[in-house]
Design a protein that fits this description.
The chain is of the alpha/beta class. The protein is built from 13 helices and twelve strands. Helix 1 links the parallel strand 1 and strand 2. The longest helix has 26 residues.
Length: 439
Amino acid sequence: MKRVGILVGREKTFPLSLLERINERGRGEVVAEFVKLGGVRLDEARRYDVIIDRISHEIPFYRASLKRAALEGTYIINNPFWWSADDKFFNYSLATKLGVAIPKTVLLPQKDYIEGVTSESLRNLEFPLDWDAIVGYTGLPAIIKPFDGGGWKNVSRVNTLEELWQVYDTTGTLCMTLQEFIDFDQFVRCYCIGQQDVMIMPYDPRQPYLSGEQYVNDPNYLSTELAQRVAADVLTLNRALGYDLNTVEFAIKDGIPYAIDFMNPAPDAELASVGEFYHNWVVDAVTRLVFRKLEEERPQPGYRWDAMLNTDHSTGGIPQRAVAAVASAAEQASRTLLSEPVREIPADIAAGVSDLVSNAASAVSNLVESITGTSGDKPNEQPADTQTPTAGASTKAKKPRAATTGKLAKPQAKPSDPAAPPKSSAPRARKGVNDKPGA
């Protein structure tokens, strides 16, 4: 008997539907249940063949437990090692190299720092920031949002430099990005399951969550040509990043689909939110994915980061999944809504990412060897919502103050004097941010 575990948070209908569908299809030979975790032993045996992770991004204990399960051969949806390492700014940079349209984006230093960070800690930081050059690149209005956030949290639209400073001053220790605002003509959110099944959903992010007006079932919403490009971009991104369950959001302007968010490894699938049609589709697609993974023969896992990222050195360092995606594009296209070949992932990019990970893993292994005097390698058992600032905010806001207390904004002098350690500041939510983008 094979076992499937589901790790969940507050959602209800999606995990319950998955349990029902998997158990119905499994007929006693495959059993799905909610995962229960207590104190996890370091030598604990494998309990599940597959685990579907819906909440570990918010619960560090769960994330650590999933990494331990992966070492025992459990297949995790999604890969907890890559999910931990990933961030939206890296995604934007990679997508640009893959030929996907991305709005102009700048990574910003955080406003505040944790306790113990002093002026000397920031000697490599450009001081003061050239805010005029930053907004000159992205343009205004622009969207300011966390570089690794989700759920439309701490996302704001800013129309002027003064508004940008006002919002930036509230971000605490969050590392933010500033992104060109796309005044979209159309907007879609796309499920991608198993790096092969794609569902394009017309989506209105300006409508409130659970309003019943965010998602619309309209198969003719996009032209055939545009829908084909969107589907190809969705597959390209998810095969490059290795996500088995994800959504990609596109703001479409003048016929160009700009990918604005594609790090959603626990996407919303609640019945009351996405509606019955999309809910049933994603439940069926994830169920098929689970059974595919149960049927696959997987080698024993290796214990290096590059192994966790599915690197096969026999292919010259090109990630296995990327090779499979290129080799079977025509076959996989028939499983998407649109039967068009997928854009190939350039081999040099795939190889470069893989080499980077491999070099990092080798460095760690060498460090272990130098400390312990033994080899670090084991025998080869290869295996967003946007919103304008609060109504009534003054347009005559002062520039952010210098970082004399550890705060970075629009300082007037470099942090050269040995100031006292800066005050720590926990991340603070942007008040008033809801599920509506600004007009």
